[in-house]
Amino acid sequence: MDQTALDLQQRILAVIARGVAQATTDEEFDGLAREVFVFQYERCAPYRAYCDRLKLTPQTVTHWKQIPAVPTSAFKSFTLTCFPAEEAVAEFHTSGTTREKAGKHYLRTLDLYEAAIRPNFAAYLVPDDARLPMMVLMPSPQEAPHSSLSHMMGVVTREFGTENSEFYVEDGLLHVERVVRDLSEAQLAHRPVFLLGTAFAFVHLLDHLTRQGLKFEVAEGSRVMETGGFKGRSREMPKAELYGLIERLIGVPKARIVNEYGMTELSTQFYDDSLRVNHQTDRKAAPPWARVVIIDPNTGRESAEMGRGLVRVYDLANMWSILCVQTEDLGVRRDPERIDDHKRDARRTSGREGATTASRDACPTGEKARADGFEVVGRAAGAEVRGCSLTAEDLQLE
Amino acid sequence: MSATIEQIREAIGRTREARERVWQHRTTDAVITALAQAAKNWLDPKSPWRKRAVEQATAPTGFSEAMVNEAIDLTFGAITYESLGELLDRELGNRRVLDEFCLRGRAQTRAMGPRLIAHFLAGNVPAPGIVSMCCGWLLRSANLVKVSTHDPVFPTLFLESVREVDAELADCVATLDWPRGELALTQTAVGDADAVIAYGDDHTVSALRQLAPAAAKFLGYGHKISFAVVAKEAMTEENLPQLAQAAAFDASVYDQQGCLSPHVFYVEERGQLGPRKFAAALADAMAAYQARVPRGQLSVEEAAEVVKFRTGYEFAAASDRRIGVWASPSGTDYAVIYDDSPAFVASCLNRIVFVKPTDGYKRVLDAIQKFASSISTVGIAPMNERALAFANDLARMGVHRVCPIGQMQRPPLTWHHDGRPNLADLVTWTDLG
Questions:
Q1: Taking CB atoms and an 8 Å cut-off, how many pairs form between chains A and B?
Q2: Is B423 inside a domain boundary?
Q3: Range of the domain at B322
Q4: For A154-163, what is each residue's pLDDT tens digit?
Q5: Which residue of A has its CA nearest to B121?
Q6: Is residue B413 included in any domain, yes or no?
């Protein structure tokens, strides 16, 4: 690793180390983002070719918002790295459907990746500094070495869990009986639980509980991290229904279920603000080392105030791959909520420590920086068909 | 607004009564004359029907005003005294068999249309529904027409325009709408029908097939896909501008949402000009068409799909020489994607079209074999001996329509929609002697 790269990486790590409460000004973010852009333009040939095609190069880009975004689909057909891919210390693959080629994200170092996980997870999942055994409804990193989610779970169980944390997916199977047994034990011992899993794993678990007529009342302080994405592996369920069922069958109130929004192509995750504001919210905020912009697909420009559009992420922790990723998700901008309005509810619903956190942390000193909050509202797929032509989804070519 | 069960029952009763009257007083020739006149009344640029359709149809169809105008020309331009007469003569042997016993071979015979036809229209392309209604009128049936959410305007206005010409004839048709999920309403509508004509996706069509009475005739038209092939003979300097214009028309009309809209143009290599030249010319022609007939407004979801599709290829095009993109400079108006992989790719619609080089017709057949039954139309340029051999291969594979590029969106009234006749499947015969 040469000195320029090392130096840039150090400065990004320093921003991350400040934590989520220490916002970056636009100027500070712009400076780093454009340095990363130059770095990536110089070292990633397919990206440089794309930038040249768009005539958006280090010579012409004057603000981070002009930095060209790479569609996630490009990770499927190109090796998007700023280093020789064979030197990668880890390689994460998108799951997708079986018909599709997997997207690949090569990591030069785990430092940035893991550094970006910690402060974010701490702020949005354990703002009360609770240390709980984590029940992870996913495969372990050993079992799924190419899953970024499993890797991340490995990091958070190590850093925030206890030695009793467990992974419940083995050989591709969710061991629901074991989950049920451990939930029962926790309930008997009045011990709060911390469940983490994909939405489809939760659907699977909840279906099992329904079939067996099981219902838990887990202890106060329990929480859930759920991450979207069904990808055809389980029946789809709207978020409200899923959260309702988790509340009813497991006993974790909706306000303590946090959705994680992340993807293989990124190094930074985004979380619902629920635990910090003490009520259920779909709003997510970008941490200081990332920005999220909502792009109106009809114009290619930033969406109007409340308009829906494509979620575009600028992630400094993606220094060794691609800073600016164009997702296929639809989102909408959501300004920060005023904590004061909810203080009363917060105290009533979820205990002392949460309310303290809310008043300490979320009454933003850096309100401006957190103004780029957003909510994910859908996918750029399955638009209603108006005519009579078959579409790609209908046409089974295999 | 959703119709009620009472309204559906009332409409069935009313159209049946009208049918009894019309049946006795109108000859087939009079019906043809009235329909042709009503259709003609739409074609005048200053026609009040045109004006109303343009005002009302842009919102539900999602088409631009210019596209609605184009749809009017395509739909009603095809309905003439001659074409309606030809349709009857071709399918029934002689248009007068609907009026009286006619000699056919050694025996006399006459044809009767269904007493009540229930039409379930779908989508925003008006032509199939309008033709379906015309068929009902020609057969002097009572017709209950459930319009599409994406186009409640054309059927209703066409009915009004027929009323202006022949009120009694118009009474044989009622247009209504209700939500697809309202099973009781749909059951009421099909319960007494002697024939059901259903348009829509496979799911809708098969659901209606289940609901239709066992004795009723059922014609189902599912969603289809189309493409075109440009043979090397057509790829000349002289021919290209006109060819590209014709191809752009086929690909752009109805914003590519129709089942006749091509998704892919296979272009044969080793012509005077190469496939990339075709892609570039097609993009120019699509730009010109866009300037004249803009694509409609897209929802955020639709635009997002276009962006997802297009940027993926644009990224690849920057460094992969096998890919090329010629796209509208701003927004999502249109894009031509050149990709030298021979595999068929369905477009995300809304004027995003693929150009793929091919070694020849044989290779094209390989690429489409797996979904031949889902194909509606194959456009070809030029129509020559080789094309004829290709058309024969396509026919064997189960493709139902092959036509010149530029005509894909203009099926004649007499075409075999999805391989079936329009009227012949609906009539029953009485022989005499």
A1: 156
A2: no
A3: 225-404
A4: 999 999 999 9
A5: A388
A6: no
Architecture per CATH, A110-379? 3-Layer(aba) Sandwich (3.40)
Query: DSSP states of B40-90 as a string?
Result: HHHHSTT-HHHHHHHHHHHHHH---HHHHHHHHHHHHHT--HHHHHHHHHH
pLDDT digits (tens, 9 = 90+) for A97-150: 556 789 999 999 999 999 999 999 999 999 999 999 999 999 999 999 999 999
Residue pair B110/B430 in contact (Cβ under 8 Å)? The answer is: yes
Q: What are the distances in angstroms from CA B195 to CA A64, B135, B400?
A: 63, 12, 23
pLDDT tens digit sequence for A24-47 = 999 999 999 999 999 999 999 999
Residues from chain A contacting residue B202 (CB–CB below 8 Å): 394
DSSP secondary structure, B400-413, as one string: -EEEETT-TT---T
Q: Which residue of A71, A300, A383 is in closest CB contact with B301? A: A383
B408: closest CA of chain A, how far (Å): 13
Report CA torsion sign: B304, B308, B311, B313.
Answer: negative
At B404-416, the pLDDT tens digits run: 999 999 999 999 9
Q: Respond yes or no on whether the N-terminal peptide bond of residue B412 is cis (omega within 30° of 0).
A: no
Residue with tokens 């169980």: A157
Last residue of a domain, one of B178, B200, B223: B223
Same domain, B216 and B239: no
Interface list for B 145-204 with A (CB within 8 A): 150, 199-202
ipTM of the complex: 0.90
CB < 8 Å to A380, chain B: 301, 304-305, 307-308
CA-atom Rg of chain B in angstroms: 23
pTM of the model: 0.91
A397 pLDDT tier (thresholds 50, 70, 90): low
